[in-house]
Prior knowledge:
The complex is a heterotrimer.
Chain A (H helix, E strand, L loop, with lengths): L1 H9 L1 H18 L1 H4 L30 H37 L1 H16 L2 H12 L4 H11 L2 H15 L2 H8 L4 H12 L1 H24 L10 H10 L8 H29 L7 H11 L3 E2 L1
Chain B lengths: L5 E10 L6 E11 L4 E5 L6 H8 L7 E4 L3 E4 L2 E2 L5 H7 L4 E4 L13 H13 L3 H14 L16 H13 L5 E5 L7 H18 L2 E5 L3 H7 L2 E6 L2 E7 H6 L4 H8 L4 H4 L3
Parallel strand pairs in B: 3-9, 3-10, 7-8, 8-9
Antiparallel strand pairs in B: 1-2, 1-4, 1-5, 5-6, 10-11
Helix pairs in contact in B: 3-4, 4-5, 5-6
Chain C lengths: L1 H27 L4 H12 L2 H10 L7 H13 L14 H36 L4 H15 L2 H15 L19 H38 L2 H8 L4 H38 L5 H10 L3 H29 L8
Helix pairs in contact in C: 1-4, 1-12, 5-6, 5-8, 5-10, 5-11, 5-12, 6-8, 7-8, 7-10, 8-10, 9-10, 10-11, 10-12, 11-12
Bound molecules: adenosine-5'-diphosphate and magnesium ion (MG).
The site of magnesium ion has 4 residues of chain B, from helix 1.
Amino acid sequence: MGQLWIGLRRNRKAFIGLAIVLLILLVALAAPLLTEYNPAARTGRPHQPPSAEHILGTTRLGQDVWARLIYGAQTSLAVGFAAGLLITVVGTTLGIVAGYRGGKTDEVISFFTNMVLVVPNLPLLLVIASFVGQAGPMVIALILGLTSWAWGARVTRAETLSVKQRDFVKAAEMMGEPQWRIMAFEILPNVFSIVGINFIGSVIFAVITEATLEFLGLGDPNVISWGTMLYNAQKASALSVGAWWDILAPCLALALLGIGLSLLNFAVDEIANPRLRTGGRLARWTSLVKSGEGRL
Amino acid sequence: MSDALLSVSNLTIDYIGAETDFRAVDDVSFDVAPGEVFGLAGESGCGKSTIAFAVSRLHAPPALIRKGSQIRLAGRDVLRLNRKDLADFRWREVAMVFQSAMNSLNPVLRIEEQFYDVLRTHTGCTRNEARARTAEMLKLVDIKPERMRDYPHQFSGGMRQRIVIAICLALDPKLVVMDEPTTALDVVVQREILQRIDELRRQRGFSVLFITHDLGLMVQFCDRIGVMLSGKMVEQGPSEAIFRAPQHDYTKRLWASFPSLKGGVLG
Amino acid sequence: MPFLLRRILFYLAAFVAAATINFFLPRLMPGDPVALMFSSAASELPPESLEALKLTFGFVDGPLWKQYLTYLSSIFTGDLGVSVKYFPLPVTDLLGRALLWTVGLVGTATLVSFVLGSFLGMVAAWRRGSRLDVVLSVSAIFATSIPAVVTSLVALFVFGFTLGWFPTGYAHDPALDPSFSLAFFASVAHHAILPLITLCFVLTGGFTVTMRNNMINLLGQDYVVMARAKGLSDRRVMVWYAARNALLPTVSSLAIALGTVLGGSLVTEVVFNYPGLGNTLYQAILARDYPVIQGQLLVMTAAMLVSNFIVDVSYVLLDPRLKGSG
Lengths: 296, 267, 326
Ligand SMILES: Nc1ncnc2c1ncn2[C@@H]1O[C@H](COP(=O)(O)OP(=O)(O)O)[C@@H](O)[C@H]1O
Ligand SMILES: [Mg+2]
């Protein structure tokens, strides 16, 4: 953990990624301070282009796009992190149990994991969501959590298999520690970087998928989120009537959040897997070669 | 000095870190005469492989061969070779057997193909000429030539290492570097392979730079030995002398930690 | 071949699992499943068609297992019911027509981006740390982290509406009837370019990153170092020793990526109003046309399983260790 933190501080990708995510988080939390408008209320004429009054213009219903964007950020972030957490908890638990217990347990869990991996995720979500009706954000988070853990379970299991062979696990087994303690206190801390990658990856996935489901008309259109902004804008044919701000605002917000989270994810990956790292030592090496201090 | 085949002098190699460097090889000098077997001994991590890599210029960043280092082979300044000369120099002059027998052959190419790419690159020969040469080399190491159409996974570990040795000798190099060539193999196979290498060396006259941490093997197999301790060469000389009258404390301790040697090998 | 046979059995199980979800989902929801699924149908369909539809989905008198078997047997005889919105069009016809467009679009996009992405990943890994590597890696991160909805909408806005280079919807000029004429094919190609480029943009980055990471992990392998020691050209080492081996894990990750590919194509089709599965589905969702929504899961799963099987076969062809040996 300590190492992870030091690595994060030195890594430029991590720094930029974290800055982006924190910025969006801050804007979301401070939404009431950053706009005077009620995001749900009609506060102007329909489809007004950006102006001093409405800095990102208005929707077809005359709502303020900036207000919807920053209040919507709350929903997107909440769903992203809640679903990401759920996906990670389920995936990590199943992965560690399968990897550590082995035998029949492993066979059963792995079979289901592989099965979930070959049933295409979005079509499955569409069917479930369509039966749920107009799903609120937290229902979407729950559905995502219950259907999207397979990838995490698979990679955690693989990592557990290798950690299981190490001496300290063997030692704990000799001391007669109960299995759950070994899994929770010996294995889990040692697969932490995989869990981290899984978590950030799942948050990205959840944010994107929530937006997609809502865009496809499976969300509750009265909720204010980036996905429903897209849905309403698309339904209002915003692009063909030239109201680009209505659709580009949530687009850019989603892209920015996605990029921030991905940068973080790649940074964690690089820290966990030193071979992928290219940073400081290489720059130093290059300058040494250039100054004639040595060669290959 | 001038009659040495390989002459390494003041070789210093660092692994560059983000802030500090790690000196893996520190001012090492030694010579290997034509036809000689020179052994590099020392515990794991003391820099043996780092030297072996430097001889064929195989290092990649963050390794850095410091200025002032010199490696000469058959009169050529290895560290000054340009790209084209280096490609030509590799394998024709210095061939190499790597540590893990299981992993030195490309799993997705047929054995034949792994001979052919060396032969074509260096001699420009046709596929048929390459096949003839491959068959000849495989026979040298007791592997049926028909099996050149097989893939590496179809051979045992010992056979794979013999195939690697056959590939090494395909161009009749002057020096073969062997980095712990038998570590991954069991004892019987290990003997077999070393004996075969010894015979081949006598027939063909190449020199060997032999690296191992197994001192028993080393004393038996090498004409001269250099002993390394954390990057430095602390002692070198004929095997007999190093074994019977070690000068350096570390060498003495190294011998002491292998008590079985006294009776078994030279007795 | 036992390996492939095992996979086929597994895929069959996965398909049944998808069907099982379809079967239980309406029955797990609160309220009457029949009313839930056919609420709109009841008013629009003739009574005897509604009865047939109920039978197809296993709503028969009898215990649950009997209903389940009824449903499975209708699926395996290729009966997915009729569309409520486009009554009396059978779901299989509706989806089959759409599938053609989707397969064309997705197949091309996957192939192009896999080849391109793997190539870029190979080059980036081989020259890791160089400026080229940094540029490729960072662009790949950006491209993969932007949702397909966003990419599609922005592409449509910029190249369709603003610049006017490409049509803003549909798969061919509606004035042209489908035929084997040059004009028709030209129109199809012209309409496909923008969705294709968008999908490739979404997909290529992922393959680049996968290939780069796999390859970097392989560069330290003894056989790669030995290939360099052999004096082979850089190109030969990069392609035939490093990349050729790194391709194996990349191909197996392709199987997992196919889910994302299908998902991405659904969205892209909706945005570009492309008459594939995605768009059909979108219309079905808006109309709560449940037979179509359920049918698409089965069709998509089948498509996914077939593509997975193709990946399995190419894996076997690429890895000599799987050939011949049990
Ligand atoms: N790529 C590398 N980066 C940093 N340090 C390295 C690298 N490769 C080797 N080293 C360090 O250099 C030292 C010498 O390694 P090596 O030559 O492989 O030792 P030996 O072959 O004698 O066991 C070791 O301590 C090892 O940790
Ligand atoms: Mg070594």
